[in-house]
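Fold this sequence, please.
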Amino acid sequence: QVHVVESGGGLAQPGGSLQLSCVDSGGGFSSLIMGWYRQAPGKERELVAHINGASRVGYEDFVKGRFTISRDNAKNAIYLQMNQLEVEDTAVYYCNTIGGRKSWGQGIQVTVSS
């Protein structure tokens, strides 16, 4: 399991941008498929995007063309560049591995509002 610290959330206006960062303190990061998840109020947690160790990426339809996931293995980090933000993107965002059993931290709040 990973032990991560997320940063970069906050408040943005519709159409604006935010970048989330996630740094893992565990080992073997470069071999992990990592993802960003989110959970909106009253909704279940959902996958947003994922990236493997070679930077092959995948996105859920609702963020395609707007969000970009990337990683820096030297820094044990993944990032989520969020552009063209919509009110519906408001959620707590989490960084974690793909697949397997997971523990979840506090995540980081992203609020999109006028």
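The chain is about 0% helix and 45% strand. The beta strands are 4-7, 10-12, 18-24, 34-39, 46-51, 57-59, 67-72, 77-82, 91-97, 108-112.
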